[in-house]
Specification:
The complex is a heterodimer of chains A (407) and B (227).
Chain A: H1 2-10, H2 14-54, E1 57-60, H3 64-67, H4 77-85, E2 92-104, E3 109-117, H5 119-125, E4 132-137, E5 147-151, H6 152-157, E6 165-171, E7 177-188, H7 193-198, E8 199-203, H8 204-210, E9 220-224, H9 230-241, E10 246-249, H10 250-253, H11 255-293, H12 295-303, H13 308-344, E11 346-347, H14 352-357, E12 363-364, H15 370-396, H16 400-405
Parallel strand pairs in A: 3-8, 5-7
Antiparallel strand pairs in A: 1-9, 1-10, 2-3, 2-6, 2-9, 4-7, 5-8, 6-7, 11-12
Helix pairs in contact in A: 1-13, 2-11, 2-13, 11-13, 11-15, 13-15
Chain B: E1 2-14, E2 19-31, E3 35-39, H1 46-53, E4 61-66, E5 69-70, H2 76-86, E6 87-90, H3 102-112, H4 117-130, H5 146-159, E7 164-168, H6 176-193, E8 196-201, H7 204-209, E9 212-217, E10 220-226
Parallel strand pairs in B: 3-8, 3-9, 6-7, 7-8
Antiparallel strand pairs in B: 1-2, 1-4, 4-5, 9-10
The chains are: A alpha+beta (407), B alpha/beta (227).
């Protein structure tokens, strides 16, 4: 019956309750949509990074990452890859020779990682081949000699087009220069402009023609492990057999990505808690008005035997209803909008430059996990409970005799 | 059977500037089945006296025994519970819950007492029929006249099966017809069901109906007449 009274009390002053409910609804729509966009952008950036260039696990010689020196390679690359691909949980594996060198055109030169890849296995690990637009060439499908794939940014900097000639140079272990001329067969573009500026791709078979590096070596082995929980198991299995190698999961090698993802999760909740806190003050104000308007009635209730605890509960239920109605409406509208935007995405035109500096796409697919709504529901109810404390305390502190006399 | 016994009751209000001695040593007792009016001019202390008997206000000095229990010794939560189980209240301004229907208002106290839904429902309807509102059980207070609202308040006061009913100027806001009607209902309940009523009032019509009239002036009982 207390619940029923609280619910009916909510609609005594319809306009006032509706104003608060609309405020809660709008506040939550803003918060949830922003959270959805932030979460979607963050998740997309992480997935893009994993799919385009990071992979779940990367393996290097322990000294390689210090200065990217060519002499720090993994030997017997084929046998190594064979071992890895047989581990349960591994979807695909590829190895690269990765050399820090220069990409030169007649007009300019840029420092770049020259990734010598095996196109067949590379396609099973990274999505760079999907990042080449239809009009921007192919992923090593050209018949021409010495094909190279460069990024749109590199192409712009070096003033290159498809089929343009480019010369790559690098320093061999004995400090002699090596290099060769290549033809641009594909121009890619990921959502990370920093990565794009720093990476070009050639075939491993072509590298061996211009370098004295031994055959069957690699500087970087990238492994895809689709199930997150398998990552550590796979890593440990490799470590057991190759304890001297540097084997890092993406969370270890790309600390900023893991941190950004974790931070985004926390930011979303902090953001929502601030919104709920602000709404909570509005609710406290409204409930205080309610308590002051019903002094006489509350006095009567206490006089006829309603305990202070029950009076407290009645005010608390009404406050929870006030926040929960707005909360449910806000969540339903937001969930509907997010469902639609999640399918079609939202574009942020003109923000490409800024977004891509941080690895974010400009076409974002907002998304929120179902458990977000559970947590949010809990937070909304908690807001109602907290917002009810002060008005409810005011109510129970009333002296029934004085309250009944109030005009 | 004595149900209320008041001994040497005093109430002093200490405001910042003046001390108000509202009740000055009242000794009274009330028997089961009384129909008593407590009368006196405004400020005589009759409402304070009733509030103390109802456990709503604490005496500064003296004791109130209800069915042998000294209510001054009860803690706040026990006293609230005691009020709910033993005392019915009828207020001058009716004080019904505006969002509830007449029946729900009557049921409310029984809900606080933890009675079953069926019992609540049956008793609420029966009480409303007793006060002549059987056809208005689903009306909200704002759809009822002042007299009808006060009759709902009487039904509500009876709902908890109290030992007695305290009515603080119950007819003050009513017209003559409503007053007569309400008094008849209360008198019938008193005669037929032996329900004890104690009123504070200025109303001569109430005094006329009462079988015992206690007059209070300046916080003291100046007369106690049984007709």
């Amino acid at each position: 019956m207390l619940l029923s009274i609280a619910w009916k009390n909510l609609w005594r002053k319809k306009l006032r309750s509706l104003i608060v409910i609309i405020a809660v609804t709008l506040g939550l729509i803003g918060g949830i949509l922003s959270a959805g966009i932030m979460a979607g952008a963050s998740d997309q950036a992480l997935q893009d990074a994993l799919n385009d260039y990071v992979s779940e696990i990367q393996i290097h010689h322990p000294n390689y990452s210090d200065n990217y020196e060519l002499r720090y390679f993994i030997d017997n690359s084929d046998e190594f890859n064979e071992f890895i691909s047989n581990i349960e949980g591994v979807k695909s594996v590829t190895s690269r020779v990765k050399i820090l060198g220069m990409a030169n055109s007649p007009v300019n030169a840029v420092g770049s990682f020259i990734n010598a890849v095996d196109p067949g296995t590379e396609k099973t690990v990274t999505n760079i081949y999907k990042r080449i637009a239809d009009t921007s060439g192919t992923y090593f499908e050209s018949e021409r000699k010495n094909p190279i794939i460069i990024s749109q940014r590199t192409a712009k900097k070096l003033n290159l087009k498809l089929n343009s000639k480019i010369v790559i140079t690098f320093t061999e272990n004995d400090s002699t220069y090596s290099g060769g001329a290549f033809r641009v067969c594909g121009i890619y573009k990921t959502h990370n402009s920093v990565y794009d500026e720093m990476n070009v791709f050639i075939r491993r078979s072509d590298l061996s023609k211009i370098s004295s590096l031994p055959e069957n070596i690699s500087h970087e082995t990238a492994i895809r492990v689709p199930v997150d929980e398998d990552m550590e198991t796979v890593k440990n299995k490799i470590l057991e057999k190759y304890p001297d190698l540097s084997i890092l999961t993406w969370k270890e090698s790309q600390g900023y990505l893991a941190m950004a993802s974790e931070m985004m999760d926390k930011m979303i909740y902090i953001f929502l808690i601030i919104i709920l806190l602000a709404l909570g003050f509005g609710i406290v104000n409204t409930m205080l008005m309610v308590v002051l308007e019903r002094i006489k009635e509350t006095g009567m209730l206490m006089a006829v035997g309603m305990s202070k605890f029950r009076v407290f509960k009645m005010i608390m239920y009404e406050t929870i209803f006030l926040s929960a109605v707005g909360g449910v409406v806000g969540m339903l509208i937001s969930a509907g909008l997010l469902r639609n935007w999640g399918k079609n995405g939202i574009n942020f035109p003109g923000m490409e430059e800024g977004f891509e500096q941080f690895g974010f796409a400009t076409h974002i697919y907002p998304a929120l996990e179902p458990d977000f709504y559970f947590t949010l529901s809990f937070l909304i109810i908690l807001t109602g409970i907290i917002a009810s404390i002060y008005p409810a305390r005011k109510a129970v502190k009333m002296n029934p005799v004085e309250a009944i006399r109030t005009e | 059977m004595k149900i209320i016994e008041v001994t040497n009751l005093h109430k002093i209000y200490n405001s910042s500037e003046v001390k108000v001695h509202a009740v000055r040593g009242i000794d009274l007792s009330f028997e089961q089945g009384e129909f008593t009016a407590v009368v006196g001019p405004s400020g005589s202390g009759k409402t304070t006296f009733l509030n103390m008997m109802g456990g709503l206000d604490n005496p500064t000095e003296g004791k109130i025994f209800i069915d042998g229990i000294n209510i001054g010794e009860l803690k706040s939560s026990k006293l609230t519970d005691f009020r709910m189980k033993n005392i019915g209240f009828v207020f001058q301004a009716y004080n019904l819950i505006p969002v509830l229907t007449a029946k729900e208002n009557v049921e409310f106290i029984m809900h606080l007492q933890g009675r079953s839904k069926n019992e609540r429902n049956e008793r609420a309807i029966s009480l409303l029929e007793q006060v002549g509102l059987g056809d208005r059980i689903n009306s909200r207070p704002n759809k009822l006249s002042g007299g009808q609202q006060q009759r709902v308040a009487v039904a509500r006061a009876l709902a908890s099966k109290p030992k007695f009913i305290l009515a603080d100027e119950p007819t003050a806001n009513l017209d003559s017809d409503s007053t007569a009607n309400l008094l008849d209902i209360m008198e019938n309940l008193n005669r037929e069901e032996n329900i004890t009523f104690i009123f504070s009032t200025h109303d001569a019509r109430v005094v006329k109906k009462a079988r015992r009239v206690v007059t209070i002036e300046d916080g003291k009982v100046v007369s106690d007449l049984t007709k």
